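Backbone description:
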Amino acid sequence: VSVPTRGVMWAIGDLVSSESDPMFDSSPRPAAVTSDRIDYLFDRGLHDLPDSERPDCHRLKRHSYVSVYGRMHADLPSQTITTGFGAMGRGRYVHPTERRTITPHEAARIQFFPDFFTFGDAGRTLLQKTIGNAVPPKMGYALGLHLLR
């Protein structure tokens, strides 16, 4: 059975930029050098930061982490959401159309958590761990159905 893929913006495109819940609806403020790297991607229409623009720890060693310091593709599915989604250097977590990393709300949406789901009053680190370590609810449901057969 072929299932059509859905891009990142399908999941998060209708979210309005709001800081009604600053912990859930905002990104961490990046360091100046990180802002410069995000600008580099947008100013050149790139999704992968060239090695020449990466910090020494990712530039001077052989690596296979192309998506580190990457920008999400609006029309492609997201890479796996991990606990590092709030940091540009931990994966392809720069928002596809805005100069920032994705918010916990956007990460939860990509994981298919419904908007009514409450994560409690956790701080940002615990919120990122909860969302990043979660099995997406729809995947858990499908796995559960399969195991019941």
Observations:
- The mean pLDDT is 89.
